[in-house]
Amino acid sequence: MMARNRTQAAVLIVFGLLMSQTLAAEAAPRAFPGAVGFGASATGWTGGEVIPVTTLADAGAGSLRACVEKGEMPRICVFQVSGTITLDTPLFFRSNLYVAGQTAPGQGIQIRLGKSRATPVIIKNANDVVVRFLKVRPGPSEQPSSSVDAVTLENATRVYLDHLSLMFSTDENLGIHVSRERSSDITVANSISAWALDHANHPKGRHSKGALICSGDGRDFDCGRVSLWRNLFAHNRDRNPDIYGHDDGPVEVVNSVFYNPISQFGEFRNYYGNAFIVYAGNVALTGPSTVDRRPAAVEAIMASDQYRLEVQVDDILAIDRGRCDQDRPFRQVDADPGAEIIEGVTGTLSVPRVKASEVLDLVLEGVGDRLPSGEHRDSLDQQLVETVRDCKGKVIDSPSEVGGWPDLQPEERVVDSDGDGFPDAWEQSTTGLDAGQPDDPWQIVAGTDQSYIQLWLAELAGDRELDD
Q1: What is the dihedral sign for C-alpha 171, 172, 174, 175?
Q2: How many CB atoms lie within 10 A of CB 400?
Q3: Cα gap 434→424, rounded to integer Å
Q4: N or C: which end of the chain has fewer CB within 10 A?
Q5: Contact 188/40 with Cβ under 8 angstroms?
Q6: CA-to-CA distance for 65 and 398, rounded, in angstroms?
Q7: Stretch 410-436: mean pLDDT, rounded?
Q8: Domain ranges of the chain
Q9: What's the CA gap between 269 and 306, in Å, rounded?
Q10: Could you give phi then psi for residue 383, rounded to 5 degrees?
Q11: Is residue 468 packed enough to be buried (19+ CB in 10 Å), middle (13-18) or exposed (0-12)?
């Protein structure tokens, strides 16, 4: 009885901490209207310089690199071009940065590898970074490499990744890692992790992975307070996602869709500390590549008997599609002895949620690099969405199996005569701006608490406040 009481007390303490952390996050300024989750306070870029990206070149004046690697000064990267950026070295996204992919014309911005052997987008030793509406699809490096994610976060805090299309990595599409101090206060929302390459050129061989959350270089560092919300994982062998335990707070996986792994969906472990994970309102679907016809949506694995592993599970649709001719439910959880599985969510989440029955249509409609108008969604993302709807597709070894990288035709945005970052047409239709002379982008719009630059970015992205 005493042991049971101690366990109940520990649960109440965890939930009390979770609730206080969530309420504090809600009270802080947010990155943009409707920003949710633990990364919503990524605002260090506010008040900064608006820097136009005018070329698809890897480096040099007007390049994306020139903006993201420009020290740690507050800044916003806005795009006056669209098309594909091919990288020979990684892009290091420094602190106090907003990469506003929603400003790109045409079908947006696609990033892939050239001569590089590393992850193309790296957010390392950085804080207050917002990255939105990009396609990051590295592909195999010229030489075998064990370190090609699409996006890697390492020792990063207050980061918001939103409406990204992550594909064609040879490790995992998304990695959140800690090698010193901490990685925490992170939101990954409305994003795709799909078609990580299986038998490509990773030294370990078959290695198609969706996401690895809170991997670490030992137990002396912290990782947590991560929100995964309204994402789509599809056609990855495993790590859909894998989450490792630390003591820095919860990891929440909410209202997301997981489709067609070969072996595993989510695998949660307490490697580095007490792991607290919420898995709520999600949809797990087997597909043509899935080997185990009776898998589990969540595997709770006791990697250490020194630490707790607690998983809250609520409102999960776990559907075995058989051979795509019938739907049958399968296990929600497969837990090792010692893992604490709690049915229902009793704390306050950092994100709003809807019923699992509403999630598939909601996610497929807007996930990835897609503007509210439907612009930016290219043929590859559309193909992916159709495979999920139609119970088709497979885990792949090469981008060529799904048609390769779409040829995004370079397109220039409409004229910005005064060079202040705003298109003339928008200035002409907006009270208080003048297309004939540079305006202060941080001037507050009359009757609001937003600046003109924040208003423009929010309009392009379709940002709005969300109901809880």
Answers
A1: negative
A2: 10
A3: 8
A4: N
A5: no
A6: 27
A7: 85
A8: 2-412, 429-461
A9: 12
A10: -60, -45
A11: exposed
Q: pLDDT tens for residues 236-274?
A: 999 999 999 788 889 999 999 999 999 899 999 998 899
Q: What angle do CA 193, 198, 199 make, to 5 degrees?
A: 160
- CA atoms of 230 and 331, how far apart (whole Å): 22
Torsion of CA 369, 353, 313, 230, to 10 degrees: 0
Choice between 114 and 21, residue whose per-residue pLDDT is larger: 114
Region 2-412: CATH code: 2.160.20.10
- What are phi and psi for residue 443, nearest 5 degrees? -60, 135
In the three-class reduction of DSSP (H, G, I as helix; E, B as strand; rest coil), residue 79 is classed as strand
Q: 161 is written with which tokens?
A: 């990744």
Give the separation between CA 449 and CA 283, rounded to whole angstroms.
38
Contacts of 24 (CB under 8 A, 6+ apart): none
Whether 25 has a pLDDT exceeding 50, the answer reads no
How do beta strands 317-320 and 328-329 pair?
A: antiparallel
Is 462 exposed, middle or buried, given 0-12, 13-18 or 19+ CB atoms closer than 10 A? middle
pLDDT at position 60: 98
